[in-house]
Amino acid sequence: MKKLAFAAALLSTALTLPALAQDKKIRLGVLTDMSSFASDSTGMGSVVAARLAVEDFAKELPGYQIEVIFSDHQNKPDIGSAAARKWVDQDGINAILDVPFSSVALAVAEVTRDSKTVFIASGPGTTVLTGEKCSANTVHWTYDTYALANGTARALTEGGGKTWYFVTADYAFGHALESDATGVITATGGSVLGSVKHPPNGNDFSSPLLRAQASKAQVIGLANAVGDTINSVKQAAEFGIAGSEQRLAALLMQLTDVHALGLKNAQGLYMTEAFYWDLNADTRAFADRFAAKMNGNRPTGNQAGVYSGTLHYLKAVKAANSTDGAVVAKKMKEIPIDDKLFGKGNIRADGRAVHDMLFFQVKKPEESKGPWDYYKLIRTIPAKDAFKPLAAGGCPLAKS
After folding, report:
1. pTM exceeds 0.90 for this model
2. What is residue 400's predicted lDDT score, i.e. its pLDDT?
3. DSSP character string of 302-370
Protein backbone atom coordinates (compact mmCIF):
# COMPACT_ATOMS: atom_id res chain seq x y z
CA MET A 1 0.00 0.00 0.00
CA LYS A 2 2.90 2.36 0.76
CA LYS A 3 4.36 1.72 -2.72
CA LEU A 4 1.00 2.38 -4.36
CA ALA A 5 0.52 5.57 -2.38
CA PHE A 6 4.00 6.75 -3.30
CA ALA A 7 3.39 5.97 -6.97
CA ALA A 8 0.09 7.83 -6.94
CA ALA A 9 1.67 10.85 -5.29
CA LEU A 10 4.53 10.88 -7.78
CA LEU A 11 2.20 10.54 -10.75
CA SER A 12 0.05 13.41 -9.56
CA THR A 13 3.09 15.65 -9.16
CA ALA A 14 5.10 14.88 -12.29
CA LEU A 15 8.38 16.70 -12.02
CA THR A 16 8.52 20.09 -13.73
CA LEU A 17 11.75 22.06 -13.44
CA PRO A 18 11.74 24.99 -13.89
CA ALA A 19 8.32 26.21 -15.06
CA LEU A 20 9.58 28.89 -17.41
CA ALA A 21 9.27 29.41 -21.15
CA GLN A 22 6.41 27.39 -22.54
CA ASP A 23 8.01 27.02 -25.97
CA LYS A 24 10.99 25.10 -24.54
CA LYS A 25 9.87 21.77 -23.12
CA ILE A 26 11.56 18.46 -22.50
CA ARG A 27 9.34 15.50 -21.67
CA LEU A 28 10.97 12.34 -20.35
CA GLY A 29 9.07 9.07 -20.09
CA VAL A 30 10.23 6.26 -17.81
CA LEU A 31 8.74 3.05 -19.21
CA THR A 32 9.39 0.39 -16.60
CA ASP A 33 8.18 -2.51 -14.46
CA MET A 34 5.95 -1.12 -11.74
CA SER A 35 4.17 -4.28 -10.69
CA SER A 36 6.19 -7.43 -11.31
CA PHE A 37 9.45 -9.11 -10.31
CA ALA A 38 11.79 -6.39 -11.66
CA SER A 39 9.95 -3.55 -9.95
CA ASP A 40 12.44 -3.46 -7.06
CA SER A 41 15.50 -3.16 -9.30
CA THR A 42 13.83 -0.70 -11.72
CA GLY A 43 10.27 0.59 -11.14
CA MET A 44 9.77 3.66 -8.97
CA GLY A 45 13.49 3.77 -8.29
CA SER A 46 14.11 4.44 -11.97
CA VAL A 47 11.61 7.30 -11.89
CA VAL A 48 13.34 8.78 -8.84
CA ALA A 49 16.73 8.42 -10.56
CA ALA A 50 15.48 10.35 -13.60
CA ARG A 51 14.07 13.07 -11.33
CA LEU A 52 17.42 13.40 -9.55
CA ALA A 53 19.23 13.82 -12.88
CA VAL A 54 16.79 16.56 -13.85
CA GLU A 55 17.31 18.28 -10.50
CA ASP A 56 21.07 18.20 -11.02
CA PHE A 57 21.05 19.57 -14.58
CA ALA A 58 18.02 21.84 -14.73
CA LYS A 59 20.10 24.92 -13.94
CA GLU A 60 22.17 24.21 -17.08
CA LEU A 61 19.05 24.55 -19.23
CA PRO A 62 17.50 27.86 -18.20
CA GLY A 63 14.21 28.55 -19.90
CA TYR A 64 13.33 24.86 -20.30
CA GLN A 65 10.39 23.12 -18.69
CA ILE A 66 11.49 19.54 -17.93
CA GLU A 67 8.86 16.96 -17.08
CA VAL A 68 9.20 13.32 -16.01
CA ILE A 69 6.26 10.94 -16.43
CA PHE A 70 6.13 7.15 -16.21
CA SER A 71 4.15 4.09 -17.26
CA ASP A 72 4.06 0.39 -16.39
CA HIS A 73 4.71 -1.85 -19.41
CA GLN A 74 3.70 -4.96 -17.40
CA ASN A 75 6.59 -6.88 -19.01
CA LYS A 76 4.54 -7.24 -22.20
CA PRO A 77 5.92 -6.10 -25.58
CA ASP A 78 2.49 -5.15 -26.93
CA ILE A 79 1.70 -2.96 -23.92
CA GLY A 80 5.16 -1.44 -23.94
CA SER A 81 5.11 -0.64 -27.65
CA ALA A 82 1.58 0.81 -27.40
CA ALA A 83 2.64 3.09 -24.54
CA ALA A 84 5.74 4.14 -26.45
CA ARG A 85 3.72 4.78 -29.62
CA LYS A 86 1.31 7.03 -27.74
CA TRP A 87 4.20 8.90 -26.15
CA VAL A 88 5.91 9.39 -29.51
CA ASP A 89 2.87 10.19 -31.67
CA GLN A 90 0.60 12.07 -29.27
CA ASP A 91 2.38 13.15 -26.09
CA GLY A 92 5.58 14.68 -27.40
CA ILE A 93 7.94 12.57 -25.28
CA ASN A 94 11.53 13.47 -26.16
CA ALA A 95 13.24 10.51 -24.52
CA ILE A 96 12.09 7.10 -23.29
CA LEU A 97 14.10 5.72 -20.37
CA ASP A 98 14.79 2.38 -18.66
CA VAL A 99 12.54 -0.37 -20.23
CA PRO A 100 13.62 -3.56 -18.43
CA PHE A 101 13.05 -6.86 -20.27
CA SER A 102 14.64 -7.37 -23.64
CA SER A 103 11.48 -8.26 -25.54
CA VAL A 104 9.82 -5.00 -24.49
CA ALA A 105 12.97 -2.98 -25.21
CA LEU A 106 13.25 -4.38 -28.74
CA ALA A 107 9.63 -3.41 -29.40
CA VAL A 108 10.23 0.12 -28.08
CA ALA A 109 13.38 0.45 -30.20
CA GLU A 110 11.27 -0.17 -33.31
CA VAL A 111 8.74 2.47 -32.27
CA THR A 112 11.44 5.10 -31.79
CA ARG A 113 13.59 4.08 -34.77
CA ASP A 114 12.46 6.77 -37.22
CA SER A 115 10.96 9.17 -34.72
CA LYS A 116 12.08 12.34 -32.98
CA THR A 117 12.40 10.42 -29.69
CA VAL A 118 15.58 9.01 -28.18
CA PHE A 119 15.44 5.62 -26.44
CA ILE A 120 17.96 5.28 -23.58
CA ALA A 121 17.78 1.66 -22.41
CA SER A 122 19.05 0.96 -18.90
CA GLY A 123 17.00 -2.08 -17.93
CA PRO A 124 17.32 -4.65 -20.76
CA GLY A 125 20.23 -6.99 -21.37
CA THR A 126 20.04 -8.12 -24.99
CA THR A 127 23.02 -7.32 -27.21
CA VAL A 128 20.64 -7.31 -30.18
CA LEU A 129 19.81 -3.67 -29.33
CA THR A 130 23.30 -2.72 -30.47
CA GLY A 131 23.65 -5.63 -32.88
CA GLU A 132 21.50 -6.48 -35.86
CA LYS A 133 18.55 -4.46 -34.51
CA CYS A 134 20.58 -1.34 -33.70
CA SER A 135 19.01 2.05 -34.31
CA ALA A 136 20.44 5.55 -34.60
CA ASN A 137 17.93 6.64 -31.93
CA THR A 138 18.75 3.89 -29.39
CA VAL A 139 21.46 4.11 -26.72
CA HIS A 140 22.05 1.02 -24.57
CA TRP A 141 23.39 2.32 -21.29
CA THR A 142 24.02 0.12 -18.26
CA TYR A 143 24.92 -3.46 -19.16
CA ASP A 144 24.23 -6.28 -21.60
CA THR A 145 24.54 -10.07 -21.55
CA TYR A 146 28.01 -9.96 -23.10
CA ALA A 147 29.42 -7.53 -20.51
CA LEU A 148 27.98 -9.54 -17.60
CA ALA A 149 29.12 -12.92 -18.90
CA ASN A 150 32.47 -11.60 -20.09
CA GLY A 151 33.26 -9.93 -16.77
CA THR A 152 32.37 -12.85 -14.52
CA ALA A 153 33.58 -15.70 -16.75
CA ARG A 154 36.92 -14.05 -17.54
CA ALA A 155 37.68 -13.10 -13.96
CA LEU A 156 36.85 -16.53 -12.54
CA THR A 157 38.50 -18.54 -15.32
CA GLU A 158 41.68 -16.50 -15.13
CA GLY A 159 41.51 -16.88 -11.35
CA GLY A 160 41.62 -20.68 -11.55
CA GLY A 161 37.99 -21.63 -12.16
CA LYS A 162 38.78 -23.59 -15.31
CA THR A 163 35.78 -25.94 -15.40
CA TRP A 164 32.18 -24.73 -15.52
CA TYR A 165 28.67 -26.12 -15.40
CA PHE A 166 25.64 -23.96 -16.25
CA VAL A 167 22.13 -23.81 -14.80
CA THR A 168 20.34 -21.90 -17.53
CA ALA A 169 16.87 -20.42 -17.99
CA ASP A 170 15.38 -21.95 -21.11
CA TYR A 171 14.66 -18.81 -23.14
CA ALA A 172 16.64 -16.39 -25.29
CA PHE A 173 18.08 -14.33 -22.44
CA GLY A 174 19.42 -17.34 -20.54
CA HIS A 175 20.81 -18.90 -23.72
CA ALA A 176 22.60 -15.64 -24.54
CA LEU A 177 24.20 -15.47 -21.10
CA GLU A 178 25.44 -19.05 -21.34
CA SER A 179 26.68 -18.63 -24.92
CA ASP A 180 28.57 -15.41 -24.17
CA ALA A 181 30.15 -16.89 -21.06
CA THR A 182 31.12 -20.09 -22.87
CA GLY A 183 32.96 -18.12 -25.53
CA VAL A 184 35.02 -16.33 -22.90
CA ILE A 185 35.68 -19.49 -20.87
CA THR A 186 37.04 -21.44 -23.83
CA ALA A 187 39.04 -18.44 -25.08
CA THR A 188 40.78 -18.15 -21.71
CA GLY A 189 41.71 -21.82 -21.43
CA GLY A 190 38.69 -23.16 -19.58
CA SER A 191 36.04 -25.71 -20.49
CA VAL A 192 32.31 -26.25 -19.96
CA LEU A 193 31.47 -29.68 -18.56
CA GLY A 194 27.74 -29.40 -19.14
CA SER A 195 24.54 -27.42 -18.89
CA VAL A 196 21.02 -28.02 -17.67
CA LYS A 197 18.04 -25.93 -18.77
CA HIS A 198 15.09 -25.02 -16.59
CA PRO A 199 11.77 -23.31 -17.41
CA PRO A 200 11.58 -19.65 -16.41
CA ASN A 201 9.77 -18.52 -13.26
CA GLY A 202 10.42 -21.77 -11.43
CA ASN A 203 10.45 -22.57 -7.73
CA ASP A 204 12.30 -25.89 -7.50
CA PHE A 205 15.91 -25.89 -8.69
CA SER A 206 17.03 -28.92 -6.71
CA SER A 207 17.49 -31.21 -9.71
CA PRO A 208 19.55 -28.76 -11.85
CA LEU A 209 21.69 -27.77 -8.86
CA LEU A 210 22.35 -31.36 -7.81
CA ARG A 211 23.43 -32.18 -11.37
CA ALA A 212 25.74 -29.18 -11.35
CA GLN A 213 27.11 -30.19 -7.95
CA ALA A 214 27.71 -33.77 -9.12
CA SER A 215 29.65 -32.52 -12.16
CA LYS A 216 32.49 -31.43 -9.84
CA ALA A 217 32.89 -28.29 -11.96
CA GLN A 218 34.92 -25.62 -10.23
CA VAL A 219 32.31 -22.97 -11.08
CA ILE A 220 28.54 -23.29 -11.27
CA GLY A 221 27.21 -20.50 -13.48
CA LEU A 222 23.62 -19.32 -13.06
CA ALA A 223 22.46 -18.08 -16.46
CA ASN A 224 19.07 -16.83 -15.32
CA ALA A 225 17.56 -13.71 -13.76
CA VAL A 226 15.50 -12.13 -10.96
CA GLY A 227 13.28 -14.69 -9.19
CA ASP A 228 14.96 -17.67 -10.83
CA THR A 229 18.39 -16.48 -9.68
CA ILE A 230 17.15 -15.72 -6.17
CA ASN A 231 15.61 -19.19 -5.83
CA SER A 232 18.69 -20.85 -7.35
CA VAL A 233 21.05 -19.12 -4.91
CA LYS A 234 18.79 -19.85 -1.94
CA GLN A 235 18.64 -23.56 -2.75
CA ALA A 236 22.37 -23.68 -3.53
CA ALA A 237 22.96 -22.42 0.02
CA GLU A 238 20.70 -25.16 1.37
CA PHE A 239 22.77 -27.78 -0.49
CA GLY A 240 26.01 -26.33 0.86
CA ILE A 241 27.34 -25.36 -2.56
CA ALA A 242 28.31 -21.81 -1.58
CA GLY A 243 30.50 -23.06 1.27
CA SER A 244 32.13 -25.82 -0.75
CA GLU A 245 35.10 -25.86 -3.11
CA GLN A 246 32.75 -25.07 -5.97
CA ARG A 247 32.24 -21.38 -6.71
CA LEU A 248 28.78 -20.01 -7.45
CA ALA A 249 28.50 -17.26 -10.06
CA ALA A 250 25.36 -15.36 -11.03
CA LEU A 251 25.60 -13.95 -14.54
CA LEU A 252 22.86 -11.42 -13.74
CA MET A 253 22.35 -10.28 -10.17
CA GLN A 254 21.01 -7.00 -8.81
CA LEU A 255 21.62 -5.42 -5.43
CA THR A 256 17.94 -5.81 -4.59
CA ASP A 257 18.22 -9.55 -5.32
CA VAL A 258 21.02 -9.87 -2.77
CA HIS A 259 18.95 -7.80 -0.34
CA ALA A 260 16.03 -10.19 -0.78
CA LEU A 261 18.29 -13.21 -0.22
CA GLY A 262 20.21 -11.88 2.76
CA LEU A 263 23.95 -12.34 3.22
CA LYS A 264 23.53 -15.72 4.91
CA ASN A 265 22.25 -17.18 1.63
CA ALA A 266 24.14 -14.99 -0.85
CA GLN A 267 27.61 -14.93 0.77
CA GLY A 268 30.46 -15.90 -1.54
CA LEU A 269 28.47 -15.33 -4.72
CA TYR A 270 30.33 -13.76 -7.66
CA MET A 271 28.81 -11.33 -10.17
CA THR A 272 29.53 -8.39 -12.48
CA GLU A 273 27.70 -5.07 -12.20
CA ALA A 274 27.99 -1.61 -13.73
CA PHE A 275 27.52 0.29 -10.46
CA TYR A 276 27.62 -0.11 -6.71
CA TRP A 277 26.36 2.51 -4.30
CA ASP A 278 29.27 2.18 -1.84
CA LEU A 279 32.20 2.58 -4.23
CA ASN A 280 33.26 6.10 -3.27
CA ALA A 281 32.07 9.39 -1.77
CA ASP A 282 30.19 10.40 -4.93
CA THR A 283 28.25 7.14 -5.25
CA ARG A 284 27.43 7.24 -1.54
CA ALA A 285 26.18 10.82 -1.79
CA PHE A 286 23.89 9.86 -4.68
CA ALA A 287 22.69 6.80 -2.77
CA ASP A 288 21.82 8.94 0.23
CA ARG A 289 19.70 11.28 -1.92
CA PHE A 290 18.04 8.29 -3.57
CA ALA A 291 17.39 6.55 -0.24
CA ALA A 292 15.71 9.67 1.15
CA LYS A 293 13.06 9.33 -1.57
CA MET A 294 12.90 5.50 -1.59
CA ASN A 295 12.29 4.52 2.04
CA GLY A 296 15.97 3.91 2.72
CA ASN A 297 16.60 1.59 -0.25
CA ARG A 298 19.90 1.92 -2.09
CA PRO A 299 19.99 2.24 -5.90
CA THR A 300 20.67 -0.69 -8.20
CA GLY A 301 22.86 -0.53 -11.29
CA ASN A 302 19.78 -0.21 -13.49
CA GLN A 303 18.46 2.74 -11.49
CA ALA A 304 21.86 4.44 -11.44
CA GLY A 305 21.99 3.87 -15.20
CA VAL A 306 18.74 5.79 -15.62
CA TYR A 307 20.30 8.70 -13.74
CA SER A 308 23.51 8.59 -15.77
CA GLY A 309 21.74 8.19 -19.12
CA THR A 310 19.28 10.99 -18.37
CA LEU A 311 22.10 13.31 -17.35
CA HIS A 312 24.02 12.59 -20.56
CA TYR A 313 20.88 13.15 -22.62
CA LEU A 314 20.35 16.57 -21.04
CA LYS A 315 23.98 17.48 -21.66
CA ALA A 316 23.48 16.57 -25.32
CA VAL A 317 20.32 18.70 -25.54
CA LYS A 318 22.32 21.65 -24.27
CA ALA A 319 25.26 20.99 -26.59
CA ALA A 320 23.04 20.50 -29.66
CA ASN A 321 20.58 23.26 -28.70
CA SER A 322 17.86 20.90 -29.88
CA THR A 323 15.39 18.28 -28.64
CA ASP A 324 15.07 16.53 -32.01
CA GLY A 325 15.74 12.86 -31.37
CA ALA A 326 18.08 12.27 -34.29
CA VAL A 327 20.10 15.41 -33.52
CA VAL A 328 20.38 14.68 -29.80
CA ALA A 329 21.24 11.01 -30.29
CA LYS A 330 24.05 12.02 -32.63
CA LYS A 331 25.32 14.57 -30.12
CA MET A 332 25.21 11.97 -27.33
CA LYS A 333 27.72 9.94 -29.34
CA GLU A 334 29.93 12.95 -29.98
CA ILE A 335 30.38 14.12 -26.39
CA PRO A 336 32.14 11.90 -23.82
CA ILE A 337 30.38 10.25 -20.91
CA ASP A 338 31.62 11.78 -17.68
CA ASP A 339 29.58 11.60 -14.48
CA LYS A 340 30.08 10.74 -10.83
CA LEU A 341 28.32 7.37 -11.00
CA PHE A 342 29.67 5.71 -14.15
CA GLY A 343 32.86 7.69 -14.63
CA LYS A 344 34.31 8.31 -18.06
CA GLY A 345 33.27 6.58 -21.26
CA ASN A 346 31.76 7.05 -24.67
CA ILE A 347 28.86 5.97 -26.88
CA ARG A 348 29.81 4.03 -30.00
CA ALA A 349 28.23 4.21 -33.43
CA ASP A 350 26.08 1.16 -32.60
CA GLY A 351 24.58 2.96 -29.58
CA ARG A 352 26.51 0.98 -26.98
CA ALA A 353 27.52 3.12 -23.98
CA VAL A 354 31.00 1.94 -23.06
CA HIS A 355 32.22 2.32 -19.47
CA ASP A 356 34.00 0.33 -16.79
CA MET A 357 32.31 -2.75 -15.32
CA LEU A 358 32.88 -4.09 -11.82
CA PHE A 359 33.46 -7.67 -10.64
CA PHE A 360 32.23 -8.34 -7.09
CA GLN A 361 31.92 -11.01 -4.47
CA VAL A 362 29.11 -10.91 -1.91
CA LYS A 363 30.37 -10.40 1.64
CA LYS A 364 29.97 -12.79 4.51
CA PRO A 365 27.52 -11.56 7.19
CA GLU A 366 30.37 -10.78 9.58
CA GLU A 367 32.11 -8.65 6.94
CA SER A 368 29.16 -6.32 6.44
CA LYS A 369 29.31 -3.03 8.34
CA GLY A 370 25.64 -2.13 8.01
CA PRO A 371 22.46 -2.18 5.92
CA TRP A 372 23.05 -2.63 2.17
CA ASP A 373 26.80 -3.20 2.68
CA TYR A 374 26.89 -6.31 0.56
CA TYR A 375 29.72 -6.26 -2.00
CA LYS A 376 33.49 -6.32 -2.01
CA LEU A 377 35.16 -5.23 -5.23
CA ILE A 378 37.48 -7.87 -6.72
CA ARG A 379 38.34 -6.29 -10.05
CA THR A 380 37.53 -3.25 -12.19
CA ILE A 381 37.08 -4.25 -15.83
CA PRO A 382 38.29 -1.39 -18.09
CA ALA A 383 35.75 0.00 -20.53
CA LYS A 384 37.80 -1.12 -23.54
CA ASP A 385 37.61 -4.75 -22.35
CA ALA A 386 34.11 -4.83 -20.88
CA PHE A 387 31.84 -4.90 -23.94
CA LYS A 388 31.66 -6.81 -27.20
CA PRO A 389 33.94 -5.22 -29.83
CA LEU A 390 32.13 -2.92 -32.24
CA ALA A 391 33.10 -4.97 -35.28
CA ALA A 392 31.70 -8.16 -33.73
CA GLY A 393 28.22 -6.84 -32.99
CA GLY A 394 26.72 -6.94 -36.46
CA CYS A 395 25.25 -3.41 -36.33
CA PRO A 396 24.75 -1.92 -39.82
CA LEU A 397 25.49 1.55 -38.41
CA ALA A 398 28.95 0.38 -37.38
CA LYS A 399 29.66 -0.93 -40.88
CA SER A 400 28.70 2.37 -42.46
Report:
1. yes
2. 64
3. HHHHHHHHHHHHHHHHHHHT---HHHHHHHHHHSPEEETTTEEEEE-TTSBEE--EEEEEEPPGGG--S
